[in-house]
Amino acid sequence: QNLINQIAAGEVIERPVSVVKELVENALDAGATRITIEIADGGKQLIKVSDNGCGMDAEDLAKCVVRHATSKIKTPEDLFRITTMGFRGEALPSIASVSNMRIISKPQGSAQPYACCLHLQDSAVDRSEKVSAPEGTTVIVQDLFASVPARLKFLKSAETEKSHIRDYLGKLMLSRADVAYTFISDGETALATQGGLAIDPELALRNAIGAVYGSRAAKSLRKVNLVLQDFAVSGYVSDPAVVTGSRSGQVFFVNNRYIISPLLNKAVDAAVSDLVYGGKYPYAVLFIRIAYEQVDVNVHPAKREVRFAESNKVFEAVRAAVRQAYHSYQE
Ligand code: ADP
Ligand code: MG
User: In CATH, what number is assigned to the domain containing residue 229?
Assistant: First the structure.
C-alpha cells in the first residue's frame, strides 16, 4: 500500500511546493478564511499548514488518509464536474508515503473540548491522541523524501525551494485575496495578507498586491475594468512611473486560474507603449472572465498556458482595458 502511494506521490509530489499546494487547496476547500504556512529549510525539514476551515472529527480524520477517500465526490457526475481544486483523494496518502505526517483537526462547532491528532508512518496510521487545538486543521509534514533518496537528490537549495513556494503563494494571495495568509520561513514572516473579501473585495485585492509586490506598486494602482458580452477583464495596473525590469510583476488569471500568457504580456505592452520604454514593465494583476468554450486549457500539461479561440479579440480587449485605466488616470 505504501508503495502504491509512493508511486502516486511520484506523479504529483515533486518538491516542497507541491505539498504546500495540495495542503493549501485542501484548506481552501474546507472553507478556511485564515491559512498559515510555515516551512523550515525550504520545506525539506518542515511544512506546516494550519487553517480555520470546517475541520474533521476523529472518524473523518481516520478516513482522509486512505487512498481515494475523498469527501468531494458524492455522485458520478462529480467526477466530470470537479469544482473543487483537489484531485481525487490522493494528496494526503501520497504525501504521507514520502514523509512523516501528523494531522491535527477539530471540527467547527465541536462539542468535544479536544482535537484529534493522527500520526502517520509510511502512509499508515501509527497512533492517534487527543490534543488541545483550535477548530480547523493543521497538517505537519516533516522530512519530505527522507525515505526516497532518488527524489531527495533532485531537490534544490533551501533558498530555491522556498522561492518556488513564495511564488506559488504570491499568486494564490492575489487570486484568493479573500483569505488571510501568513507565510513563515525559518521563523520569519516572508509574506502576509489580511484577507477580508467580505468587507471590500477591491481593498482585499489592493492589500494583497501590496503584500506581494510592495507598497510602491500598491500605492500607484489604476483600476482596470472592462465588461463585454461574454468577456470581462478586471484588476489593476501600476502607474507608468512604477515599473520593473522584468515581467515578473505581471500576472494573469483566466477564470481565476493562474496562467502564463505572452499574448497578454504583449497586450499590456501595447497599451503602455507610449508611456513606458526600454525594457520596463508596469505591474499588472488582471483577471479575465471568458466563456469556457472560448478557452482551451489543455495546451500545457501543467495547465499554465491556455489558447484563446479568438486571441485577437482578447488581445484587443485587454489592450483597450489597460489603456482606459491610464486615460482615466491622466484626466
Ligand atoms: P481531495 O482533496 O481530492 O479530496 P485529499 O487527499 O487532498 O483529497 O484529502 C482527502 C480528504 O481529507 C478531503 O476530501 C477532505 O475531506 C479531508 N481534508 C483534507 N484536508 C482537509 C482540511 N484542511 N480541512 C478539512 N478536511 C480536509
Ligand atoms: Mg486535496
Answer: 3.30.230.10
Q: How far is the CA of 290 from the centre of ligand 1 (A)?
A: 29
Report the number of distinct structural domains present in the chain.
2
Residues lining ligand 1, Cβ inside 6 A: 22, 26-27, 29-30, 51, 53-56, 64, 70-72, 86-92, 137
Q: What CATH number is attached to the domain comprising 157?
A: 3.30.565.10
Instruction: Report ipTM (2 d.p.).
Output: 0.99
> Scanning the structure block, which residue is given the C-alpha cell 500576472?
251
Q: What is the pTM of this model?
A: 0.91
Q: What is the DSSP letter of 150?
A: H
- Give the contacts of 307 (CB within 8 A, at least 6 positions apart): 295, 296, 299
Half-sphere exposure of 75 (CA within 13 A, CB side): 3
Structural domain harbouring 311: 214-330
Largest CA distance in the chain: 66
Q: Are residues 185 and 46 in the same domain?
A: yes
Q: What are phi and psi of 28, to 5 degrees?
A: -65, -45
Same domain flag for 142 and 221: no
What length is written for the chain?
Answer: 331
**Rounded Cα gap, residues 199 and 28, in angstroms:** 19
168-198 tens-digit pLDDT: 999 999 999 999 999 999 999 999 999 986 6
Q: Is the pLDDT of residue 139 over 90?
A: yes
